[in-house]
Design a protein that fits this description.
Elements (H helix, E strand, L loop, with lengths): L1 H12 L2 H8 L3 H15 L4 E4 L2 E4 L1 H23 L7 E7 L7 H12 L3 E7 L2 H9 L5 E6 L8 E12 L13 E6 L4 H12 L4 E7 L2 H9 L5 E4 L8 E2 L1 H4 L6 E8 L5 H17 L2 H7 L14
Parallel strand pairs: 3-4, 3-5, 7-8
Antiparallel strand pairs: 1-2, 5-11, 6-9, 6-10, 6-11
Helix pairs in contact: 1-2, 1-3, 1-4, 5-10
């Protein structure tokens, strides 16, 4: 189990050197674990690339099984009170949901489940989906283009809006070229923004690019330009300005729940709570139109 845990942690951290530090082991001990696993598997699981190790095709398959075995081992140990270390679940969210959905989810999950460590990751939208597919995140909320290949459970469609930090009673002429505040590429909001402007033949320039939503809000407050986002999580001092400035219409964007395969019962509970709290905090009109019912499950999942 120690060797399997080393593989899982090394895969999650992207480095077996960092895994050695987190697990409190020497790098030589980690190397011995990997060598032992390869001898038992009868095949090469990792190859050196640059200064690190990357999994072979067999190694990728092995990691998936190792993750399931470690999760099941920890769950079984905790269920009978054994000290196998804390079980861990991993949650992924866009920064738009950090002020409401995340604390609500963590609060309910913490009341339902005892002695389980939660790892929260914020990241670029496409990376959240990739991490869930790889099993490195158990449950996540992510944005998708409507009509894109089916992946996850669609919770709702939200309209996109042009946003600025202005007094809606004092309209200024639209700048030419239009200054834009955007997330780094790739970003669905960025793609929709640029496609709409190009279709309407509106000249634009990049005023600020960032991977941080707080930086987007700061850029708007500084008057650097205009951004595109949904209305969810929009600060009160940020205003929708599309109609006032004659900007082109924007499409909707889907909010989906993603679940990794073969979830432990704790991770399954996390995904369930995440779904319910996301729906609860999304636009009530959208939720009502979908006819979604939210059911509380107060029963606790005991881990000791």
């Amino acid at each position: 189990m120690d060797a399997l845990r080393t593989v899982v942690v090394g895969s999650d951290l992207g480095s077996f050197a960092r895994a050695a530090v987190q697990l409190g082991r020497s790098q030589s001990a980690v190397s011995m674990h990997l060598k032992k696993l390869e001898q038992q598997a009868g095949t090469t699981l990792f190859v050196r690339k640059g200064r690190g190790l990357v999994p072979t095709e067999a190694g990728e398959a092995f990691i998936a099984y190792a993750r399931r075995i470690v999760a099941l081992n920890d769950e079984a140990a905790l269920s009978v009170g054994a000290a196998a270390g804390k079980a861990s679940v991993r949650l992924g969210l866009p920064q738009d949901f950090f002020d409401d959905v995340m604390p609500a989810t963590l609060g309910r999950f913490g009341r339902d489940v005892e002695n389980v460590h939660v790892d929260v990751q914020a990241g670029e939208n496409h990376r959240l989906a990739e991490e869930v597919r790889a099993g490195r995140i158990d449950a996540a909320i992510a944005f998708f283009r409507p009509g894109s290949p089916t992946e996850g459970e669609t919770l709702c469609e939200c309209p996109m809006h042009w946003l600025a930090h202005v007094d809606p009673q004092q309209h200024e002429p639209i700048a030419d070229p239009l200054p834009l505040i955007m997330f780094n590429h790739p970003c669905l909001f960025r793609q929709a923004m640029l496609a709409a402007l190009d279709h309407s033949q509106t000249r634009w320039r990049a005023a600020l690019t960032t991977p941080s939503l707080p930086a987007v809000w700061a850029g708007l407050r500084s008057g650097l330009g205009i951004a595109v986002r949904t209305d969810h999580g929009r600060p009160e001092d940020i205003t929708c300005v599309g109609a006032e400035l004659g900007l082109p219409n924007l499409p909707n964007i889907e909010v989906r729940l993603l679940r990794a395969p073969n979830l432990s019962r704790f991770a399954e509970r996390l995904a369930q709570v995440l779904r319910e709290e996301a729906l609860r905090h999304l636009d009530p009109a959208i939720r009502s139109a979908r006819g979604v019912d939210i059911v509380h499950h107060p029963d606790r999942l005991r881990t000791t």
